[in-house]
Specification:
There is one protein chain. The protein is α/β, with parallel strands linked by helices. It has a single domain, classed as Ribokinase (UDP-N-acetylmuramoyl-L-alanine:D-glutamate ligase). The protein is built from ten helices and 16 strands. The strands form three sheets. It has a ten-stranded mixed β-sheet with strand order 7-6-1-10-11-12-13-14-15-16, with helices on both faces. A four-stranded mixed β-sheet has the order 5-2-8-9. A hairpin with a 7-residue loop joins strand 3 and strand 4. Helix 1 crosses helix 8 and helix 8 runs antiparallel to helix 9. The protein starts with a strand and ends with a strand.
């Protein structure tokens, strides 16, 4: 079977918590210069609790499926209650689960997400030892038009293997790395030369480039670092920059939405962008679907709940969104 997209990444059980006691404070102890704070030594009331599946692998796979693509996910979870919930949810969404590996005795990854009053969040992640590994993947069955890689928990050897396999089999490669990949900057950039598309948010781009998050040149520097790769840098509601080799930069605004919670916005953007390209759309239209899907994701709790469905595509594409090209 040939899929439109195969997503690679984590499968996580997410627990979202909101509380009026959660505050955002300034702190130079963290590279973001901000921190989440709750009263120490007391009991705080939780006003909302949401439990659902998450993780870049399952989030993007569901995003692709909702947009009408034949999608599969390669991920690993435990044979526990959390793993069972994840499988049930992705099957319900029409995602092929044949590559979701559950191993007896392993624990599924788990995240507690503290949502601040402005909808931003801090994520506490427990890694249950279910990192994707080459030995549990049947490469002969990986037949698709696109591979989409979210964080593989720093497993650059697997990223390199998948990139090589994709290149040999004429499969397009889009990658949205995580912190552990970006910490291995030199080796990651070497592998990234063979990506078709690299997707980063502003924070990730700054980390990869070794600059501050407020550097005005972060977008231009990201383009110059990988001149043969389409580099996409997002900045939430402010929009996105796309560097297209030998053509220039496509810059788009974002949609201003009432933010409920931002987890999954990046996965939504990536799924929308690549879904549009997989459908054969031009870059401007595909980028608008990406921006739309990322915006829709922040309107509900959970990384998947707000993702656009195929019947909703025209509604979003008919919204006005400004964009322009710059020579580069």
């Amino acid at each position: 079977m040939k899929f439109d997209t195969i997503s690679f990444g984590s499968a996580v059980l997410d627990v979202f918590l909101t509380s009026s006691d959660i505050k955002v404070i300034r702190s130079t102890e963290f590279f973001t210069n901000k921190a989440i704070a709750v009263p120490y030594g007391t009991k705080s009331e939780v006003e909302r609790l949401v439990i659902c599946s998450g993780g870049g692998g399952t989030n993007t796979a569901v995003g692709f499926s909702r947009l009408g693509l034949k999608a599969a996910v390669v991920a690993r979870s435990g044979w526990d209650f959390a793993g069972k919930i994840i499988r049930q949810e992705i099957k319900k969404e029409g995602v092929d689960d044949q590559f979701l590996v559950q191993i007896e005795g392993e624990e599924t990854d788990y995240s507690t997400i503290l949502v601040s009053p402005d909808g931003d969040r801090t994520i506490l992640v427990y890694r249950g030892g279910t990192r994707l590994d080459k030995k549990i993947i049947d490469f002969k069955k990986l037949n698709a038009f696109w591979f989409y890689l979210s964080s593989l928990e720093g497993n650059l050897a697997l990223i390199e293997e998948l990139t090589s396999y994709a290149k040999k089999n004429s499969i397009k490669m889009a990658v949205n790395p995580g912190r552990k990949e970006l910490e291995q900057k030199k080796k990651f950039l070497k592998i990234a030369q063979d990506f078709d598309i690299l997707i980063l948010n502003r924070e990730e781009a700054a980390k990869l480039l070794g600059v501050t998050i407020v550097d005005d040149k972060v977008f231009d520097k990201a383009c110059l670092t990988l001149p043969k790769v389409m580099v996409v840098t997002t900045e939430g509601s402010k929009g996105a920059h796309v560097c297209v080799p030998q053509k220039g930069k496509l810059i788009t605004d974002g949609f201003k939405m009432k933010v409920v919670e931002v987890t999954g916005a990046g996965d939504g953007f990536g799924a929308g962008l690549i879904a549009g390209l997989a459908k054969g759309w031009d870059l401007e239209k595909a980028l608008k679907l990406g921006v739309s899907n990322g915006a829709a994701a922040v309107t509900q709790f959970g990384a998947k709940a707000g993702l656009i469905r195929e019947k909703e595509i025209d509604f979003w594409l008919n919204k006005k969104l400004n964009y322009h090209w710059e020579k580069g």
